[in-house]
Amino acid sequence: MTRPVIPIVANPAALQGDGVGCHSGADQMREAARAAGKSDTLDQYAQDYPKGPHDQPQSMCPAFGSLRVGLRMKRTATVLSGSACCVYGLTFTSHFYGARRSVGYVPFNSESLVTGKLFEDIRDSVHAYADPDRYDAIVIINLCVPTASGVPLQILPKEINGVRVIGIDVPGFGVPTHAEAKDVLAAAMLRYARSEVQAGPVAAPANRVTDRPTITLLGEMFPADPMIIGGMLQMLDLAAGPVVPTREWRELYSALDCAAVAAIHPFYTASLREFDAAGRTAVGSAPVGHDGTEAWLQAIAKACNVEQAKVDAAKNKLLPAIRAALAATPIKGRITLSGYEGSELLVARLLVESGADLRYVGTACPQTAMSNTDREWLEARGVHVQYRASLEQDIAAVNEFTPDLAIGTTPVVQAAKELSLPALYFTNLISARPLMGPAGAGSLATVINAAIHNKPRMDEMKAFFGSTGAGDRAGVWEEVPVQRPEFRAEVRRKLEKAAKKRKAEEMI
Fold first, then answer.
1. CA-CA distance, 83 to 61, in Å (whole number)?
2. Exposed (0-12), middle (13-18) or buried (19+): which is 465, by Cβ within 10 Å?
3. What are phi and psi of 315, to 5 degrees?
4. 201-222 per-position pLDDT tens digit
5. Domains contained in the chain, CATH given
Protein backbone atom coordinates (compact mmCIF):
# COMPACT_ATOMS: atom_id res chain seq x y z
CA MET A 1 0.00 0.00 0.00
CA THR A 2 1.33 3.44 -0.90
CA ARG A 3 1.25 5.96 1.92
CA PRO A 4 1.22 9.70 1.19
CA VAL A 5 4.29 11.71 2.11
CA ILE A 6 3.41 14.43 4.61
CA PRO A 7 5.70 17.46 4.39
CA ILE A 8 7.31 18.25 7.74
CA VAL A 9 8.31 21.73 8.82
CA ALA A 10 11.37 20.95 10.92
CA ASN A 11 13.62 23.40 12.70
CA PRO A 12 16.86 23.75 10.71
CA ALA A 13 18.24 26.18 13.30
CA ALA A 14 18.38 23.28 15.72
CA LEU A 15 21.38 21.91 13.87
CA GLN A 16 23.29 25.12 13.18
CA GLY A 17 26.81 25.40 14.46
CA ASP A 18 27.65 22.54 16.75
CA GLY A 19 24.12 21.21 16.63
CA VAL A 20 21.59 20.72 19.42
CA GLY A 21 22.63 17.58 21.20
CA CYS A 22 22.73 16.53 24.83
CA HIS A 23 25.85 18.69 25.24
CA SER A 24 24.11 21.88 24.09
CA GLY A 25 22.43 22.71 27.38
CA ALA A 26 18.81 22.60 28.46
CA ASP A 27 18.11 26.26 27.71
CA GLN A 28 19.25 26.06 24.10
CA MET A 29 17.34 22.85 23.46
CA ARG A 30 14.23 24.26 25.11
CA GLU A 31 14.37 27.34 22.89
CA ALA A 32 14.85 25.17 19.82
CA ALA A 33 11.85 23.02 20.77
CA ARG A 34 9.64 26.08 21.18
CA ALA A 35 10.78 27.42 17.81
CA ALA A 36 9.90 24.04 16.32
CA GLY A 37 6.32 24.14 17.58
CA LYS A 38 6.58 22.27 20.88
CA SER A 39 5.57 25.20 23.10
CA ASP A 40 2.22 23.69 24.13
CA THR A 41 3.87 20.44 25.20
CA LEU A 42 6.59 22.20 27.18
CA ASP A 43 4.08 24.56 28.82
CA GLN A 44 1.95 21.63 29.93
CA TYR A 45 4.98 19.83 31.36
CA ALA A 46 6.03 23.00 33.19
CA GLN A 47 2.57 23.18 34.74
CA ASP A 48 2.30 19.48 35.59
CA TYR A 49 5.88 19.00 36.79
CA PRO A 50 7.08 22.31 38.23
CA LYS A 51 10.79 22.64 38.89
CA GLY A 52 12.49 24.60 41.62
CA PRO A 53 13.85 25.87 43.79
CA HIS A 54 16.72 24.82 41.52
CA ASP A 55 16.53 23.68 37.90
CA GLN A 56 15.83 20.00 38.45
CA PRO A 57 17.16 17.06 40.49
CA GLN A 58 20.14 15.05 39.35
CA SER A 59 18.71 11.79 38.09
CA MET A 60 18.86 9.27 35.29
CA CYS A 61 17.42 10.22 31.90
CA PRO A 62 13.72 10.97 32.50
CA ALA A 63 12.70 9.00 29.42
CA PHE A 64 13.58 5.82 31.29
CA GLY A 65 10.31 6.21 33.20
CA SER A 66 8.16 6.14 30.06
CA LEU A 67 10.29 3.37 28.58
CA ARG A 68 9.84 1.30 31.74
CA VAL A 69 6.05 1.71 31.60
CA GLY A 70 5.91 0.66 27.95
CA LEU A 71 8.19 -2.35 28.38
CA ARG A 72 6.17 -3.65 31.31
CA MET A 73 2.93 -3.76 29.34
CA LYS A 74 1.90 -6.92 27.55
CA ARG A 75 1.36 -6.69 23.80
CA THR A 76 2.92 -3.23 23.64
CA ALA A 77 5.81 -2.24 21.37
CA THR A 78 8.03 0.60 22.57
CA VAL A 79 10.14 2.57 20.09
CA LEU A 80 12.68 5.30 20.85
CA SER A 81 13.70 8.18 18.61
CA GLY A 82 16.81 9.93 19.85
CA SER A 83 20.57 10.12 19.75
CA ALA A 84 22.25 6.74 19.52
CA CYS A 85 24.16 7.22 22.77
CA CYS A 86 20.92 8.01 24.62
CA VAL A 87 19.14 5.01 23.16
CA TYR A 88 22.04 2.74 24.08
CA GLY A 89 22.03 3.98 27.68
CA LEU A 90 18.26 3.68 28.03
CA THR A 91 18.22 0.21 26.49
CA PHE A 92 21.03 -0.94 28.78
CA THR A 93 19.29 0.46 31.85
CA SER A 94 15.94 -1.08 30.90
CA HIS A 95 17.46 -4.54 30.59
CA PHE A 96 19.46 -4.02 33.77
CA TYR A 97 16.12 -3.52 35.50
CA GLY A 98 14.68 -6.70 34.05
CA ALA A 99 12.94 -5.75 30.80
CA ARG A 100 12.11 -8.83 28.77
CA ARG A 101 11.12 -7.09 25.56
CA SER A 102 13.08 -5.52 22.77
CA VAL A 103 13.38 -1.75 22.47
CA GLY A 104 12.70 -0.35 19.02
CA TYR A 105 14.95 2.40 17.66
CA VAL A 106 14.59 4.76 14.70
CA PRO A 107 18.06 6.19 13.93
CA PHE A 108 18.70 9.55 12.25
CA ASN A 109 21.39 11.91 11.10
CA SER A 110 21.51 15.66 10.58
CA GLU A 111 20.02 15.43 7.09
CA SER A 112 17.10 13.14 7.96
CA LEU A 113 16.32 15.23 11.03
CA VAL A 114 16.15 18.56 9.20
CA THR A 115 14.46 17.38 6.00
CA GLY A 116 11.68 15.51 7.79
CA LYS A 117 12.91 12.10 6.68
CA LEU A 118 13.13 11.05 10.33
CA PHE A 119 9.37 11.45 10.69
CA GLU A 120 8.84 9.35 7.58
CA ASP A 121 11.16 6.69 9.04
CA ILE A 122 9.19 6.72 12.29
CA ARG A 123 5.92 6.43 10.37
CA ASP A 124 7.30 3.49 8.38
CA SER A 125 8.47 1.76 11.54
CA VAL A 126 5.02 2.17 13.10
CA HIS A 127 3.39 0.55 10.08
CA ALA A 128 5.92 -2.28 10.23
CA TYR A 129 5.13 -2.89 13.92
CA ALA A 130 1.34 -2.67 13.53
CA ASP A 131 0.53 -6.37 13.75
CA PRO A 132 -2.73 -6.89 15.69
CA ASP A 133 -1.80 -10.50 16.37
CA ARG A 134 1.19 -9.30 18.39
CA TYR A 135 0.36 -5.84 19.69
CA ASP A 136 -2.46 -3.82 21.19
CA ALA A 137 -0.46 -0.59 21.12
CA ILE A 138 2.75 0.98 19.83
CA VAL A 139 4.46 3.69 21.88
CA ILE A 140 6.85 6.11 20.15
CA ILE A 141 9.01 8.22 22.47
CA ASN A 142 10.84 11.31 21.24
CA LEU A 143 14.00 11.99 23.22
CA CYS A 144 15.74 15.37 23.48
CA VAL A 145 17.04 15.97 19.96
CA PRO A 146 13.88 14.97 18.01
CA THR A 147 11.78 17.00 20.44
CA ALA A 148 14.06 20.03 20.07
CA SER A 149 13.83 19.65 16.31
CA GLY A 150 10.04 19.48 16.30
CA VAL A 151 9.47 15.93 15.03
CA PRO A 152 5.63 15.90 15.12
CA LEU A 153 4.56 12.57 16.56
CA GLN A 154 1.07 14.00 17.05
CA ILE A 155 0.31 13.65 13.33
CA LEU A 156 1.06 9.92 13.26
CA PRO A 157 -2.01 7.76 12.59
CA LYS A 158 -3.93 7.10 15.80
CA GLU A 159 -4.55 3.50 14.78
CA ILE A 160 -3.12 1.11 12.18
CA ASN A 161 -4.68 -2.30 11.53
CA GLY A 162 -6.46 -2.05 14.88
CA VAL A 163 -3.21 -1.31 16.75
CA ARG A 164 -3.19 1.92 18.74
CA VAL A 165 -0.38 4.41 18.11
CA ILE A 166 0.74 6.72 20.94
CA GLY A 167 3.48 9.29 20.40
CA ILE A 168 4.93 11.29 23.30
CA ASP A 169 7.79 13.75 23.80
CA VAL A 170 9.90 13.03 26.87
CA PRO A 171 12.87 15.41 26.73
CA GLY A 172 15.24 15.77 29.64
CA PHE A 173 14.82 19.53 29.37
CA GLY A 174 11.05 19.31 29.80
CA VAL A 175 10.33 16.41 32.18
CA PRO A 176 12.34 16.69 35.41
CA THR A 177 12.53 13.06 36.59
CA HIS A 178 12.00 9.54 35.32
CA ALA A 179 9.27 9.09 37.96
CA GLU A 180 7.21 11.83 36.31
CA ALA A 181 7.89 10.41 32.86
CA LYS A 182 5.91 7.36 33.98
CA ASP A 183 2.98 9.73 34.38
CA VAL A 184 3.49 11.14 30.87
CA LEU A 185 2.89 7.77 29.21
CA ALA A 186 0.31 6.54 31.74
CA ALA A 187 -1.75 9.68 31.15
CA ALA A 188 -1.43 9.39 27.37
CA MET A 189 -2.74 5.83 27.54
CA LEU A 190 -5.57 6.77 29.89
CA ARG A 191 -6.55 9.60 27.54
CA TYR A 192 -6.65 7.21 24.59
CA ALA A 193 -8.61 4.58 26.54
CA ARG A 194 -11.06 7.20 27.77
CA SER A 195 -11.73 8.29 24.18
CA GLU A 196 -12.43 4.66 23.28
CA VAL A 197 -14.88 4.31 26.17
CA GLN A 198 -16.67 7.49 25.11
CA ALA A 199 -16.91 6.19 21.54
CA GLY A 200 -18.71 2.97 22.46
CA PRO A 201 -18.46 -0.42 24.19
CA VAL A 202 -14.94 -1.73 24.94
CA ALA A 203 -13.58 -5.16 25.77
CA ALA A 204 -13.94 -6.24 29.38
CA PRO A 205 -10.70 -6.85 31.30
CA ALA A 206 -9.81 -10.53 31.34
CA ASN A 207 -8.98 -10.57 35.05
CA ARG A 208 -11.96 -8.73 36.53
CA VAL A 209 -13.26 -10.98 39.29
CA THR A 210 -15.42 -8.69 41.43
CA ASP A 211 -18.69 -6.83 41.18
CA ARG A 212 -17.84 -4.56 44.12
CA PRO A 213 -16.87 -0.93 43.50
CA THR A 214 -13.14 -0.70 42.91
CA ILE A 215 -10.37 1.68 43.95
CA THR A 216 -7.76 2.28 41.26
CA LEU A 217 -4.24 2.42 42.70
CA LEU A 218 -2.04 5.09 41.13
CA GLY A 219 1.71 4.52 41.24
CA GLU A 220 4.10 1.58 41.00
CA MET A 221 4.50 -0.29 44.27
CA PHE A 222 5.76 -3.50 45.82
CA PRO A 223 3.72 -6.40 44.34
CA ALA A 224 2.26 -7.46 47.70
CA ASP A 225 0.90 -4.01 48.53
CA PRO A 226 -2.08 -4.06 46.13
CA MET A 227 -3.19 -7.38 47.63
CA ILE A 228 -2.78 -5.99 51.15
CA ILE A 229 -4.79 -2.91 50.22
CA GLY A 230 -7.40 -5.16 48.63
CA GLY A 231 -7.82 -7.02 51.91
CA MET A 232 -8.41 -3.76 53.77
CA LEU A 233 -10.86 -2.49 51.16
CA GLN A 234 -12.84 -5.71 51.35
CA MET A 235 -13.85 -4.74 54.89
CA LEU A 236 -15.51 -1.67 53.36
CA ASP A 237 -17.28 -3.76 50.69
CA LEU A 238 -14.84 -2.33 48.13
CA ALA A 239 -12.13 -3.96 46.03
CA ALA A 240 -8.70 -3.00 44.75
CA GLY A 241 -8.75 -2.13 41.05
CA PRO A 242 -5.83 -2.07 38.65
CA VAL A 243 -2.50 -0.46 39.44
CA VAL A 244 -1.68 2.40 37.07
CA PRO A 245 0.66 2.19 35.15
CA THR A 246 -1.12 -0.97 34.07
CA ARG A 247 0.33 -4.21 32.72
CA GLU A 248 -2.07 -4.55 29.78
CA TRP A 249 -4.32 -2.30 27.75
CA ARG A 250 -7.70 -3.65 28.91
CA GLU A 251 -6.81 -2.77 32.50
CA LEU A 252 -7.01 0.90 31.51
CA TYR A 253 -10.76 0.55 30.99
CA SER A 254 -11.13 -1.05 34.40
CA ALA A 255 -8.94 1.66 35.96
CA LEU A 256 -11.26 4.35 34.58
CA ASP A 257 -14.33 2.40 35.72
CA CYS A 258 -13.64 2.90 39.42
CA ALA A 259 -15.36 4.37 42.45
CA ALA A 260 -12.30 6.45 43.37
CA VAL A 261 -8.58 6.76 42.70
CA ALA A 262 -5.97 6.27 45.40
CA ALA A 263 -2.97 8.45 44.54
CA ILE A 264 -0.45 6.24 46.31
CA HIS A 265 2.28 8.13 44.44
CA PRO A 266 1.13 11.75 44.51
CA PHE A 267 2.98 13.17 41.48
CA TYR A 268 0.85 11.57 38.71
CA THR A 269 -0.65 14.93 37.86
CA ALA A 270 -1.53 14.26 34.22
CA SER A 271 -3.09 10.89 35.04
CA LEU A 272 -5.19 12.47 37.79
CA ARG A 273 -6.41 14.99 35.22
CA GLU A 274 -7.69 12.12 33.09
CA PHE A 275 -9.47 10.54 36.05
CA ASP A 276 -10.97 13.91 36.90
CA ALA A 277 -12.24 14.22 33.33
CA ALA A 278 -13.83 10.80 33.81
CA GLY A 279 -15.58 12.08 36.95
CA ARG A 280 -13.51 10.09 39.44
CA THR A 281 -12.53 11.38 42.90
CA ALA A 282 -8.88 11.15 43.99
CA VAL A 283 -7.65 10.39 47.51
CA GLY A 284 -4.09 11.17 48.62
CA SER A 285 -1.64 9.38 50.94
CA ALA A 286 -1.82 5.63 51.62
CA PRO A 287 -2.60 3.13 54.40
CA VAL A 288 0.87 3.23 55.98
CA GLY A 289 1.36 2.90 59.72
CA HIS A 290 -1.34 3.44 62.31
CA ASP A 291 -2.24 7.08 61.62
CA GLY A 292 -1.92 6.75 57.85
CA THR A 293 -4.16 3.69 57.69
CA GLU A 294 -6.82 5.27 59.89
CA ALA A 295 -6.92 8.51 57.88
CA TRP A 296 -6.82 6.73 54.51
CA LEU A 297 -9.69 4.37 55.32
CA GLN A 298 -11.77 7.35 56.42
CA ALA A 299 -10.95 9.28 53.24
CA ILE A 300 -11.77 6.32 50.98
CA ALA A 301 -15.03 5.75 52.82
CA LYS A 302 -16.00 9.39 52.36
CA ALA A 303 -15.18 9.29 48.62
CA CYS A 304 -17.26 6.11 48.16
CA ASN A 305 -20.11 6.86 50.59
CA VAL A 306 -19.34 3.90 52.84
CA GLU A 307 -21.32 3.88 56.05
CA GLN A 308 -19.33 4.76 59.16
CA ALA A 309 -20.15 1.51 60.95
CA LYS A 310 -18.16 -0.47 58.35
CA VAL A 311 -15.26 1.97 58.62
CA ASP A 312 -15.19 1.67 62.40
CA ALA A 313 -15.29 -2.13 62.19
CA ALA A 314 -12.34 -2.13 59.77
CA LYS A 315 -10.38 0.22 62.00
CA ASN A 316 -11.08 -1.87 65.07
CA LYS A 317 -9.66 -4.91 63.32
CA LEU A 318 -6.68 -3.34 61.56
CA LEU A 319 -5.35 -0.61 63.82
CA PRO A 320 -4.56 -2.72 66.91
CA ALA A 321 -2.67 -5.18 64.71
CA ILE A 322 -0.66 -2.37 63.14
CA ARG A 323 0.10 -0.80 66.52
CA ALA A 324 1.26 -4.17 67.86
CA ALA A 325 3.51 -4.80 64.83
CA LEU A 326 5.12 -1.37 65.18
CA ALA A 327 5.73 -1.90 68.89
CA ALA A 328 7.18 -5.38 68.34
CA THR A 329 9.88 -4.17 65.95
CA PRO A 330 10.93 -0.67 66.97
CA ILE A 331 13.59 1.32 65.15
CA LYS A 332 16.01 3.19 67.38
CA GLY A 333 18.33 5.68 65.73
CA ARG A 334 18.63 8.93 63.83
CA ILE A 335 17.88 8.65 60.09
CA THR A 336 17.97 10.83 57.00
CA LEU A 337 15.97 9.68 53.97
CA SER A 338 16.06 10.64 50.30
CA GLY A 339 15.04 9.09 47.00
CA TYR A 340 13.45 9.61 43.60
CA GLU A 341 10.69 6.99 43.45
CA GLY A 342 7.86 9.13 44.84
CA SER A 343 7.12 6.99 47.90
CA GLU A 344 9.65 8.76 50.14
CA LEU A 345 7.05 10.50 52.33
CA LEU A 346 5.16 7.24 52.86
CA VAL A 347 8.34 5.46 53.96
CA ALA A 348 9.13 8.42 56.20
CA ARG A 349 5.78 8.11 57.98
CA LEU A 350 6.38 4.43 58.60
CA LEU A 351 9.86 5.13 60.00
CA VAL A 352 8.53 7.78 62.38
CA GLU A 353 5.77 5.51 63.67
CA SER A 354 8.36 2.77 64.12
CA GLY A 355 10.21 5.02 66.54
CA ALA A 356 12.98 6.36 64.31
CA ASP A 357 14.40 9.82 64.92
CA LEU A 358 13.84 11.01 61.36
CA ARG A 359 15.26 14.47 60.65
CA TYR A 360 15.13 14.93 56.87
CA VAL A 361 13.15 13.61 53.90
CA GLY A 362 14.24 14.55 50.39
CA THR A 363 12.31 13.59 47.28
CA ALA A 364 13.09 14.38 43.66
CA CYS A 365 9.37 14.77 42.98
CA PRO A 366 7.43 18.06 43.28
CA GLN A 367 4.98 19.13 45.95
CA THR A 368 1.40 18.38 44.94
CA ALA A 369 -1.99 18.56 46.61
CA MET A 370 -2.01 14.77 46.88
CA SER A 371 1.10 14.82 49.11
CA ASN A 372 -0.02 17.57 51.48
CA THR A 373 -1.46 15.17 54.06
CA ASP A 374 1.85 13.33 54.38
CA ARG A 375 3.89 16.54 54.42
CA GLU A 376 1.77 18.12 57.13
CA TRP A 377 1.93 14.96 59.26
CA LEU A 378 5.73 14.80 58.99
CA GLU A 379 6.32 18.49 59.56
CA ALA A 380 4.14 18.37 62.67
CA ARG A 381 6.65 15.85 64.05
CA GLY A 382 9.70 17.96 63.31
CA VAL A 383 10.76 16.33 60.04
CA HIS A 384 12.11 18.61 57.31
CA VAL A 385 10.50 17.73 53.95
CA GLN A 386 12.42 18.82 50.85
CA TYR A 387 10.68 18.54 47.49
CA ARG A 388 12.79 18.58 44.32
CA ALA A 389 15.75 17.75 46.52
CA SER A 390 19.16 18.06 44.91
CA LEU A 391 22.09 15.76 45.63
CA GLU A 392 23.79 18.64 47.41
CA GLN A 393 20.79 19.09 49.75
CA ASP A 394 20.65 15.38 50.53
CA ILE A 395 24.36 15.24 51.35
CA ALA A 396 24.13 18.47 53.36
CA ALA A 397 21.44 16.80 55.50
CA VAL A 398 23.75 13.86 56.14
CA ASN A 399 26.55 16.22 57.15
CA GLU A 400 24.28 18.32 59.36
CA PHE A 401 22.44 15.59 61.25
CA THR A 402 25.20 12.90 61.31
CA PRO A 403 22.59 10.13 61.27
CA ASP A 404 22.98 6.58 62.53
CA LEU A 405 21.72 5.58 59.07
CA ALA A 406 21.47 7.44 55.78
CA ILE A 407 18.92 6.10 53.29
CA GLY A 408 19.27 7.56 49.83
CA THR A 409 20.37 7.36 46.24
CA THR A 410 23.68 5.78 45.21
CA PRO A 411 25.80 8.96 45.55
CA VAL A 412 24.23 9.76 48.94
CA VAL A 413 25.07 6.25 50.14
CA GLN A 414 28.63 6.69 48.88
CA ALA A 415 29.02 10.05 50.63
CA ALA A 416 27.70 8.61 53.90
CA LYS A 417 29.99 5.61 53.81
CA GLU A 418 32.98 7.88 53.21
CA LEU A 419 32.05 9.41 56.58
CA SER A 420 31.91 5.87 58.02
CA LEU A 421 28.14 6.13 58.44
CA PRO A 422 25.89 3.14 57.65
CA ALA A 423 23.79 3.72 54.52
CA LEU A 424 21.17 1.91 52.44
CA TYR A 425 20.12 2.41 48.81
CA PHE A 426 16.46 3.46 48.85
CA THR A 427 15.30 1.92 45.56
CA ASN A 428 16.58 -1.63 46.02
CA LEU A 429 16.51 -2.06 49.79
CA ILE A 430 13.66 0.12 51.07
CA SER A 431 11.02 0.72 48.39
CA ALA A 432 11.16 -2.95 47.37
CA ARG A 433 9.33 -3.99 50.55
CA PRO A 434 5.67 -4.02 51.60
CA LEU A 435 4.64 -0.73 53.18
CA MET A 436 0.86 -0.93 53.53
CA GLY A 437 -1.32 -1.97 56.44
CA PRO A 438 -0.36 -4.59 59.03
CA ALA A 439 2.18 -6.24 56.69
CA GLY A 440 4.01 -2.96 56.16
CA ALA A 441 4.27 -2.21 59.87
CA GLY A 442 7.63 -3.53 60.98
CA SER A 443 8.69 -4.61 57.49
CA LEU A 444 11.54 -2.10 57.44
CA ALA A 445 12.81 -2.65 60.97
CA THR A 446 14.95 -5.73 60.37
CA VAL A 447 17.03 -4.31 57.54
CA ILE A 448 17.29 -0.86 59.11
CA ASN A 449 18.29 -2.05 62.58
CA ALA A 450 20.84 -4.43 61.07
CA ALA A 451 22.36 -1.56 59.09
CA ILE A 452 22.49 0.73 62.13
CA HIS A 453 24.29 -1.97 64.11
CA ASN A 454 27.00 -2.04 61.40
CA LYS A 455 28.42 1.25 62.69
CA PRO A 456 31.30 -0.43 64.61
CA ARG A 457 32.35 -2.27 61.44
CA MET A 458 32.38 1.02 59.53
CA ASP A 459 34.58 2.57 62.22
CA GLU A 460 36.97 -0.39 62.11
CA MET A 461 37.34 -0.10 58.34
CA LYS A 462 37.86 3.65 58.56
CA ALA A 463 40.54 3.21 61.22
CA PHE A 464 42.27 0.49 59.19
CA PHE A 465 42.35 2.30 55.86
CA GLY A 466 42.70 5.83 57.22
CA SER A 467 42.90 8.40 54.44
CA THR A 468 44.13 5.88 51.87
CA GLY A 469 42.32 6.26 48.59
CA ALA A 470 40.62 9.52 49.52
CA GLY A 471 39.64 12.20 47.03
CA ASP A 472 41.45 12.44 43.71
CA ARG A 473 44.21 10.12 44.89
CA ALA A 474 41.91 7.15 45.26
CA GLY A 475 43.07 3.81 43.91
CA VAL A 476 46.11 1.57 44.19
CA TRP A 477 49.40 3.30 43.36
CA GLU A 478 53.08 2.41 43.52
CA GLU A 479 53.61 6.02 44.54
CA VAL A 480 51.05 8.46 45.90
CA PRO A 481 50.08 10.91 43.09
CA VAL A 482 51.70 14.31 43.47
CA GLN A 483 49.41 17.31 43.73
CA ARG A 484 49.83 19.82 40.86
CA PRO A 485 48.16 23.05 41.97
CA GLU A 486 49.70 25.01 39.10
CA PHE A 487 48.11 22.64 36.57
CA ARG A 488 44.72 22.95 38.26
CA ALA A 489 45.00 26.73 38.22
CA GLU A 490 45.75 26.71 34.48
CA VAL A 491 42.80 24.43 33.70
CA ARG A 492 40.51 26.61 35.83
CA ARG A 493 41.72 29.71 33.99
CA LYS A 494 40.96 28.12 30.60
CA LEU A 495 37.48 27.06 31.69
CA GLU A 496 36.68 30.53 32.98
CA LYS A 497 37.93 32.08 29.74
CA ALA A 498 35.77 29.75 27.66
CA ALA A 499 32.72 30.53 29.82
CA LYS A 500 33.26 34.28 29.37
CA LYS A 501 33.57 33.79 25.62
CA ARG A 502 30.29 31.87 25.43
CA LYS A 503 28.50 34.51 27.48
CA ALA A 504 29.83 37.29 25.22
CA GLU A 505 28.64 35.40 22.11
CA GLU A 506 25.15 35.03 23.64
CA MET A 507 24.92 38.81 24.10
CA ILE A 508 25.72 39.53 20.44
1. 13
2. exposed
3. -65, -45
4. 888 777 666 689 999 999 998 8
5. 12-176 (3.40.50.1980), 214-322 (3.40.50.1980), 330-463 (3.40.50.1980)
